[in-house]
Amino acid sequence: MLQKVKTGTRSFLDYSFYRESDDLQAEIEKYQKLYQGIRLYHINSTPYGGGVAALLYCCMPLLGGIGMKTDWRIIEGNQNFFKVTKAFHNALQGAEYAPLLSEKMTRKELYELFQEFLSSKAAAATLGRSTGILGGI
After folding, report:
1. Fewer Cβ in 10 A, N or C end of the chain?
2. What is the pLDDT of residues 110-136, one digit of tens each?
3. Is 11 helix (H, G, I), strand (E, B) or coil?
4. Does residue 67 contact residue 44 with C-beta atoms inside 8 Å?
């Protein structure tokens, strides 16, 4: 099971002193209607010690405060799992798959490692019944 991070809720009105608009309540109500019924499920590897965690501790309560259903979970994995996810993270930001290339991990090995994760309990808890692979190797 993935560990749940409790963040609570917080109102944007708590920050009204930063905004010059007199119509903040109307704007909040607009976003409450817009996001009604939407769920945000965020998964990362740590609830502390990084930029993502710092942002989530601020943003998740505010999104909950306008009625969005939010859930933040911490995923666990072995060293290979995090090598792969870090490589994806870096590649999405324009870097090469350096950690994988330096270890000469083949596409097939990467695919098998990802399949191993998908069949794990962590994947079942994370992805539920919507687990699937897009594309092929």
Report:
1. N
2. 777 767 766 665 555 555 443 333 333
3. coil
4. no
